[in-house]
Specification:
- It is globular and about 75 Å long.
- The chain is of the alpha/beta class and 457 residues long.
- The protein contains 14 helices and 20 strands.
- α3 runs antiparallel to α6 and α9 crosses α10.
- Bound molecules: NADP nicotinamide-adenine-dinucleotide phosphate.
């Protein structure tokens, strides 16, 4: 099987790679298991400079690495360079904080001494998506390697060059061979890996069907999983909000990464009193976005990652229109080489139709007019997903209700949902389970061992 790197801005095939043979996979699995035996006993003081070196490589090579990302999946180059910088920040965060997050915790009991002790688990398989092709991997790998685990990466099939570049960073940083390995394989090879006793746990960031499949196989093997899946995040705007900031942030929150972000705001729920003004300004700003070559500094919206995503988006817009929705701007594929779709605003969508609450992975926004906070919360929660949520209001009582009542892994008040190494990240409902980042992320793939020492007579 061949794995191809295709420029989504042009359709040109950049490179093709042969998928690993079963023998090659076997060799890498054994290397991971062998490396774990020694690497897991290294100290934090040993691992820390290696992770800092990885951060330095990311910082030094950010332009080249950014270029690889943009060429393979189409995000604007500026954003790709910023992604490399963010990966450096998560490496530095865990280099500095892993020891503290995993220090023994003394618990007073009737024992002479009792405490919680954290130990690495073994080789962890990471099944990753293409949309943040570096960030998604580093936010798994930095805590996993600092905890003493070793990583096996099965990256999305459309970003093989990114996958290999990431392996190269860890190798150049001085991590031992086998601490982090990229497996160029298709998704059909994942089940076998999960069934192999040398793989002890898995993390998947991706779509709901992929999550269900990986979790089902891992579940049969009683292996821990973390799932970071899709979202249909609400972005609520109440009358007391600063409308200028709310509109500008709303457009950014919908179109970041060409609209292909799990935590992109997808449903804009706006109070009746300000709805007309919000709609007008939002449509104007969406319409004005500069679409083009993602390598150009001025480009705000580049191509979608694959032709399939364009087709899926087109289908969803058609479904919305068929169920009574209206297109205020955009609404169609763009007739030029590459996978381009117009920034689109949809209104009047029936909230009882599936399209009103499913994930739309591209620059297509849905606007909903609501009578007040009650209806806003009801519509916000009317989705099978529960990843992020944003609410704009300067009313303290409203803020408290949103924080309490929105069914999501995160609530951002007067801002847009974003990840930060210092804050946990993850979802509820069909957006997955488990957490990445902060101390929660590094504690997902460790044995939380209870130690109880009785008094000597
Ligand atoms: P995807 O199609 O689910 O692919 C993600 C990864 O899973 C890829 O490596 C893919 O491999 C693999 N995969 C697909 N089906 C599989 C299966 N049945 N068994 C094992 N592995 C399988 O998702 P995507 O299109 O790359 O990414 C977009 C999705 O990711 C969106 O739903 C988005 O919301 C979600 N996402 C979530 C987060 C979060 O943190 N919650 C962050 C980013 C993205 P192949 O490429 O070889 O098919």
């Amino acid at each position: 099987m061949a794995i191809a790197s295709i420029n989504p801005a042009t359709g040109e095939t950049l490179k093709t790679f042969n998928a690993l043979t079963p023998e090659q996979i076997e060799g890498k699995l054994q290397l991971a298991a062998d490396t774990f035996r020694t690497y897991s006993h290294t100290t934090f003081a040993h691992r820390k400079p290696l992770m800092i070196r990885a951060a330095e490589i990311l910082e030094t090579k950010k332009h080249d690495l950014g270029k690889i990302m943009t060429l393979e999946m189409g995000k604007p180059l500026k954003a790709a360079i910023a992604e490399a910088e963010k990966c450096a920040s998560v490496c530095r965060y865990y280099a500095e904080n892993a020891e503290r997050h995993l220090a023994d915790e003394i618990i007073e009991t009737n024992a002479k001494k009792s405490y919680v002790h954290f130990q690495p688990l073994g080789p962890v398989l990471a099944v990753m998506p293409w949309n943040f092709p570096f960030w998604q991997v580093f936010r798994f790998a930095a805590p996993a390697l600092m905890a003493g685990n070793v990583g096996l990466l099965k990256h999305a099939s459309n970003v093989p060059q990114c996958a290999l570049a990431i392996e190269e960073i860890f190798t150049s940083a001085g991590f031992p061979a086998g601490a982090f390995q990229t497996l160029l394989i298709g998704s059909e090879a994942v089940e076998r890996l999960l069934n192999d006793p040398r793989v002890v746990a898995a993390t998947l960031t991706g779509s709901e069907p992929a999550g269900r499949s990986v979790a089902a196989t891992a579940g049969k093997q009683i292996k821990k999983t973390v799932l970071e899946l899709g979202g249909s995040d609400p972005f609520i705007v109440m009358p007391s909000a600063n409308l200028d900031d709310a509109v500008t942030t709303a457009v950014k929150a919908r179109t970041i990464n060409n609209g292909q972000s799990c935590i992109a705001a997808k449903r804009f729920i706006v109070a009746d009193q300000i709805y007309d003004e919000f709609e007008k300004r939002f449509v104007d700003e969406m319409h004005a976005l500069r679409i083009g070559d993602p390598m150009e500094e001025s480009t705000e919206i580049g191509p979608l990652a694959t032709p399939q995503i364009v087709d899926d988006l087109d289908e969803q817009v058609k479904k919305a229109v068929a169920s009574g929705g209206r297109v205020l701007t955009g609404g169609a594929k763009i007739d030029r080489p590459g996978n381009f779709f117009e920034p689109t605003v949809l209104v009047d969508i029936d909230i009882n139709t599936p399209v009103s609450c499913e994930e739309i992975f591209g620059p297509v926004a849905m606007l909903f007019r609501v009578s007040g906070i009650e209806e806003a919360i009801k519509i916000a929660n009317a989705t099978p997903f529960g990843l992020g949520s944003a609410a704009w209001t300067n009313d303290a009582a409203e803020q408290a209700r949103f924080i309490d009542e929105l069914e999501a892994g995160a609530v951002f008040i007067n801002g847009m949902v974003a990840s930060d190494p210092r804050l946990p990240f993850g979802g509820v409902k069909n957006s997955g389970y488990g957490r990445e980042l902060a101390e929660f992320g590094i504690r997902e793939f460790v044995n939380i061992k209870t130690v109880w020492i009785g008094a000597a007579d």
